[in-house]
Design goal:
It is built from twelve helices and 16 strands. The protein has 329 residues and is α/β, with parallel strands linked by helices. The chain is globular, with a radius of gyration of 22 Å.
Length: 329
């Protein structure tokens, strides 16, 4: 279905149920249900404007890491995906299935795989944002959308918006609402459990090095500060909002944060060359041995898959983790 602009309306469609021939004398009640079929279209607002999208599209290509967990939970099959940036065992139903064509990685994409997949819907954007125009041009019969969180917008609202749009497209609005409610509960729990004064440092580990993630604007973990009301141990503004900023262990030690929250960039890529776990870098550092967070066992290690997912579900799990960590003993 070609991408076109229209008023924000849901196109009414009738769901046609095809009767299946039943073997022997088996009754219709015993027949297994057919997979959900496309039922008209819905007009959603993506990062570029209004787009008419088929409801329950049959052939889906997904390139945005934020959507894989949701599509997996909803049993949505994919025709193609960027397997090289999906980790080793997070979504095996996609990465381990040879029928799912490999789009490669964003820095060297195989866009021909998308064309070969003959998609009805392409969920692009995020790491593949630079390929948007080319994907649209090469796939004129597909709806191509980008719904990844937008820069400069409230990150929590952007994550919930993405889930809401997926709920519209795949006719799972109730399930989407449940995911959002769980997220809201988790953020409230983390904020309530935090004492309001303990200082927090957010860090990223990669390639055997420790980087600093700035409050608010730093990648992923920066959003924790305004959401949970955290007090920064280090006030340095972000220079690199994608991969963190250089910081010495001496600077971290000087700040002596009460809490450290760490994202392990390579944790979900177990075959990464020279990989050193975040725990080893933080707790094995002589310079950090006397930091309050280390001495008191107040270091929170984010799920290793977080760097690859960064979706609503990952944040929900992280806020639940923080609520338990911050709760008085």
């Amino acid at each position: 279905m070609p991408r076109r602009r229209s008023a924000l309306t849901v196109t009414a469609g009738l769901l046609t149920i095809t009767a299946l021939g039943l073997a022997g004398c088996a009754s219709a009640a015993e027949a297994e249900p057919e997979p959900a079929a496309a039922s008209g279209t819905v007009t959603i607002v993506d990062n570029h404007g209004e787009v008419e999208v088929p409801v329950n599209p049959e052939r889906v290509v997904a390139l945005d890491n934020h959507v894989f967990e949701t599509l997996s939970a909803w049993d949505i099959p994919l025709a193609a995906a960027p397997k090289q940036i999906m980790g080793t065992d997070i979504w095996p139903e996609y990465t381990g299935d040879e029928a799912v064509l490999d789009v490669g990685a964003h820095f060297e994409p195989n866009l021909e795989s998308i064309v070969a997949a003959q998609p009805d819907l392409v969920i692009g954007g995020y790491r593949f944002a630079e390929s948007y125009d080319q994907i649209v041009k090469q796939n004129p019969d597909a709806a191509v959308i980008e719904i990844a969180p937008r820069d400069g917008e409230d990150p929590n609202a952007e994550l919930t918006r993405e889930i809401e749009i997926l709920g519209q497209i795949f006719d799972r609005e109730d399930e989407a609402a449940e995911l959002i409610a769980a997220f809201d509960e988790a953020t409230a729990a983390a904020k309530d459990a935090y004492d309001g004064t303990s200082t927090v440092a957010t860090l990223l580990t990669s390639g055997g090095e420790i980087s600093y993630i700035a409050p608010v604007t730093g990648r992923s973990l920066g959003a924790l500060y305004p959401t949970a009301g955290l007090t920064p141990a280090i006030e340095q503004a972000a220079e690199d909002t994608s991969h963190g900023d250089d910081i010495s262990v001496e600077a971290i030690a000087a700040a002596s944060p009460d809490w450290i929250i760490v994202m392990d960039r390579e944790g979900a890529m177990t075959d990464a060359e020279g990989y050193v776990p975040a725990k080893e870098l933080i707790e094995g550092s002589e310079a950090l041995a006397n930091v309050t967070a280390v001495k008191e066992g107040q270091v929170v290690y984010v799920d290793p898959a977080f760097y690859l997912t960064e979706d609503l579900q990952s944040y929900t799990a992280l806020y639940e983790q923080l609520a338990k960590a911050f709760a008085p003993a």
